[in-house]
Amino acid sequence: MHSADQSLNTNSFLKSLGFPSVEIHQTFTHFDFTKPSRRVLVIGPMGSGKTEFSARVWRDAAVALSKSDKIMALTATDGVDRRKVMFVRSLHDTRFGEYPEDALAYRGGFVRCGSNIVRITDSFDLEQAIAAHLDVGTWIIDEASFYDERLAYVVRNHSVSRGLLFIFPTLILNFRRDIFNSTARLMLDTATDVVPLTAYCEHDECLEDSFYTYRYYTVEGRECPALYFDPLIIVGGDTNHDDPLQPNYCTRCDSHHYLPAKEYTFFTLKPLGEQASGGDSLPLKQELYHMKHEIASSQLYRFMQQRYTRDTPDDLVCLNALLASCIAEKALIYLYAEQNLITEELLIALVEELDLDRDYMKKTLQDNRRPVNLDQPLLKGLY
Q1: Residue 106 pLDDT grade (very low, low, confident, very high; cuts 50, 70, 90)
Q2: Are both 154 and 232 inside the same structural domain?
């Protein structure tokens, strides 16, 4: 029988019993620990409940462990019991500093994991943690996209060979709405299950579903969207900042996820970087100078003025992006750390000659795993 016919018969039956015709949706009830070798991606924007999903798995595991020993025949593979859960968080994650050290914390609450929480820095640390807890069958790895890409294969190999279950509450898309990085791509390639979550768009005038994480700065009370070439990673909390250097994050729908200067990045900024990589860095140097010291003379400014001309609230918000600090620094970091078009020597020279913000660049380059000693003396003859 076709599903449409089944649905019609079900509705007719409900009506015959005096019940209204309703549409029934599947919902989260409890987690299934009986299926081995799964790699479950729990994806969605900030605030969509990814870590809260993990807390529910944790609570379900506690219930499952309270059952009789006969249940272990269903939840274990070669002595590894998937009802035993370990929560993994980055050693650098300081978002929930107000909670206990053993807290699996999410917006609105937390559960305490006791000794079943570990902090790691990379996939090698994860291997050591797994080796130290051979009886643990379920591993919840928070924000796995922030680790090295090797992690995807470490997880797959342990999952396939030992039946381990891995759950990844993580961002897959970055603030640009691109796949976050190669780790996120490999996790998508090796996943067996995906649980997509959404949230309300956090725009004041919207109740649409949101799939995207939105980055913006606040300058004198004004919302200033991050430009497309804003650094990919900026380590910090997700609290609100009224600081032109510290980004804020929220979740937004298609209509309210502003991402100005994407075309400029590919039409102008990246070609200038390619020209510099070929030996002619003067045009790039001039554009960065204008960004830093005379923004109205830059090609970026002209592009923004031509692109956002409708004088609508959305266009005005996009124009606010030019109010954020360190725009030249961000453009240079993008060309060096992401596009690999600028040599370290040229980077140091441009920072010196253009009087760019060393402290901001050192921290942000470190965040993006491309640290540079910007206190070296200027190297001559690079232009």
Answers
A1: confident
A2: no
Both 134 and 44 in one domain: the answer is yes
Tell me: do 164 and 271 sit in the same domain: no
Beta strands in the chain (DSSP E): 39-43, 76-77, 80-90, 103-106, 109-112, 117-120, 136-141, 165-170, 193-196, 199-200, 209-210, 212-219, 222-225, 248-252
278 — phi, psi (to 5°)?
-85, 0
- The string of DSSP letters for 93-109 reads --TTTTS-TTEEEETTE
Which backbone phi and psi does 163 adopt, to 5 degrees? Answer: 75, 15
Closest by CA to 155, choosing from 180, 179, 120, is: 120
% of the chain exceeding 90 in pLDDT: 71
Residues 147 and 289 placed together within one structural domain of the fold = no
**Packing angle, helices 182-190 and 150-162, rounded to 10:** 20
Round to whole Å and give the CA distance between 137 and 154: 15
The model's pLDDT over 220-267, given as tens digits with 9 standing for 90+, comes to: 999 999 999 999 988 765 557 788 889 999 999 999 999 999 999 999
Of residues 159 and 376, the one with the higher pLDDT is 159
CB atoms within 10 A of CB 203: 19
In angstroms, rounded to a whole number, what is the distance separating the alpha carbons of residues 82 and 135? Answer: 9
Mean pLDDT taken over the chain: 89
